[in-house]
C-alpha cells in the first residue's frame, strides 16, 4: 500500500511541473501593424520636443521621432497616437504596454539601463541640467542659490542630481518638490521658489512658452550629463533594433546630405552602392529588421534627416534657437554618430 501511495504521489507531482516554456508575448512590431497605429508616450508640454501648437497639431523633436518610427514600420508617418505622460508615470505606461515607445526627454542612466523592465535605444539629444532665476535677483552662478528655494519635479533624476550637487558643494538649498513639470514651472513663474532646475533645454522651452524670456536668465552652471532618447520595453530586441536604427538612419542621411526635399532625386540618380541600398533601390536593408526595403526612404521622405528635424524644432529655425554644439555630426566636432549601415 505504501508503495502504491508513493507512486501515486510521484505521478501527481509530475502534473504540477512546468509543461514547457510559456508562449512569448506578441512582438511589438506585429501589435503595431495589426493596430495600424503607433502609440507614443511624450511629455506634451515641452515646446521644441513635444507640444500641441496653435494649429492644434503635435510638433517637436520627440514628436518627429515617433513619426519616423511610424514611417519605418507602417510606411506612414501620420499613423501615430500621442499620449502625454508625467515623469512619474512614463515608465509605468511603457512597461504595462499602454504605449509602444517612450519619447519623453528621458535621461539614459545605469538605473534604467541595467536590470530594469525598459531598454534605452540611443541618444538623440545631448543635454545637461541647469538653473534659471529671475534677472532681478543678484544671482550669477548656482552656488549663490545657497539659502534659497529651488523648484524641482518629483520622481526624476533632476531631483537626485540637485540633492547630490548640493551635498557635494555643501550648498544649503531648500527644494520645493512638485508632482509634475507644469506645476513646477507654474510655481517658479509665480515666485514660489527663487530658482528652478531642469534640463537646460526644458528650462529654455518653458520660459519661451511663457513669453517671459526677458524676465529670467539661465545660470552658466551645468551640473549633470543628460543624454536623452527613446525607450522601449525589455524583452523585444527586434523592436529595440527598429527604434534604434530609425535614429541611425536619420543620422546617416544627414551624413550623406540626403534631405526630405532631395531624397526622391537621390533615389532615382544614385550610383553609389551605399546610397542605393540605403534608399531601397537595391534590396537588403529591410531584412535584418523585418521591414521592407523602403523603410529608410519613408523616414527621410516623410520626416527628414536628423539635421532637418533638429533645425526646425530646437535649432536656429525654431523659437529656441539652440546651436547644434555637441549634437553636431563628428565632422563638425559633435557627438551625433551612426554606425555603418
CATH architecture of the largest domain: 3-Layer(aba) Sandwich
Order of helices and strands: HHEEEEHEHEHEEEHEHEHEEHHHHH
Strand content: 15-25%
Distance between the termini: 71 Å
**So, the CATH homologous superfamily of the largest domain?**
Periplasmic binding protein-like II
Q: Can you tell me about this structure?
A:
The protein has helices at 2-15, 28-35, 61-74, 90-96, 110-113, 157-168, 181-189, 200-209, 237-255, 263-269, 273-278, 295-302, 306-313; strands at residues 38-42, 45-46, 50-52, 58-59, 80-84, 101-107, 118-127, 129-134, 149-153, 174-178, 195-199, 216-218, 226-233. The protein has 341 residues and is α/β, with parallel strands linked by helices. The chain folds into two domains: 28-127 and 227-332, D-Maltodextrin-Binding Protein, domain 2; 129-224, D-Maltodextrin-Binding Protein, domain 2 (3-Layer(aba) Sandwich). A hairpin with a 3-residue loop joins strand 2 and strand 3 (50-52). Helix 3 (61-74) packs across helix 9 (237-255). Mean pLDDT is 90; it is low at 1-23.
Amino acid at each position: 500500500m505504501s508503495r502504491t501511495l508513493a507512486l501515486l504521489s510521484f505521478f501527481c507531482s509530475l502534473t504540477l511541473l512546468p509543461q514547457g516554456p510559456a508562449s512569448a508575448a506578441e512582438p511589438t512590431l506585429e501589435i503595431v501593424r495589426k493596430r495600424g497605429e503607433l502609440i507614443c508616450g511624450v511629455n506634451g508640454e515641452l515646446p521644441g520636443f513635444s507640444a500641441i501648437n496653435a494649429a492644434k497639431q503635435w510638433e517637436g523633436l520627440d514628436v518627429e521621432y515617433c513619426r519616423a518610427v511610424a514611417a519605418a514600420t507602417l510606411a506612414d508617418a501620420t499613423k501615430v497616437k500621442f499620449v502625454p505622460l508625467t515623469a512619474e508615470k512614463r515608465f509605468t505606461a511603457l512597461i504595462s504596454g499602454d504605449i509602444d515607445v517612450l519619447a519623453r526627454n528621458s535621461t539614459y542612466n545605469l538605473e534604467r539601463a541595467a536590470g530594469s523592465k525598459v531598454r534605452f535605444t540611443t541618444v538623440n539629444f545631448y543635454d545637461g541640467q541647469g538653473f534659471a532665476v529671475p534677472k532681478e535677483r543678484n544671482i550669477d552662478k548656482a552656488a549663490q542659490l545657497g539659502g534659497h528655494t529651488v523648484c524641482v519635479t518629483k520622481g526624476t533624476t533632476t531631483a537626485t542630481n540637485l540633492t547630490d550637487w548640493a551635498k557635494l558643494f555643501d550648498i544649503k538649498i531648500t527644494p520645493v518638490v512638485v508632482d509634475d513639470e507644469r506645476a513646477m514651472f507654474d510655481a517658479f513663474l509665480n515666485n514660489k521658489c527663487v530658482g528652478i532646475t531642469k534640463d537646460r533645454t526644458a528650462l529654455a522651452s518653458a520660459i519661451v512658452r511663457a513669453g517671459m524670456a526677458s524676465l529670467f536668465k539661465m545660470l552658466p552652471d551645468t551640473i549633470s550629463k543628460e543624454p536623452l532618447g527613446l525607450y522601449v520595453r525589455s524583452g523585444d530586441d527586434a523592436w529595440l533594433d527598429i527604434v534604434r536604427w530609425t535614429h541611425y538612419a536619420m543620422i546617416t542621411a544627414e551624413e550623406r546630405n540626403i534631405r526630405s526635399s532631395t531624397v526622391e532625386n537621390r533615389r532615382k540618380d544614385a550610383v553609389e552602392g551605399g546610397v542605393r541600398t540605403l534608399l531601397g533601390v537595391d534590396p537588403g536593408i529591410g531584412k535584418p529588421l523585418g521591414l521592407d526595403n523602403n523603410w529608410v526612404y519613408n523616414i527621410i521622405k516623410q520626416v527628414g534627416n536628423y539635421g532637418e528635424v533638429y533645425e526646425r524644432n530646437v535649432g536656429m529655425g525654431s523659437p529656441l534657437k539652440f546651436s547644434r554644439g555637441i549634437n553636431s555630426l563628428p565632422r563638425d566636432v559633435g557627438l551625433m554618430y551612426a554606425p555603418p549601415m
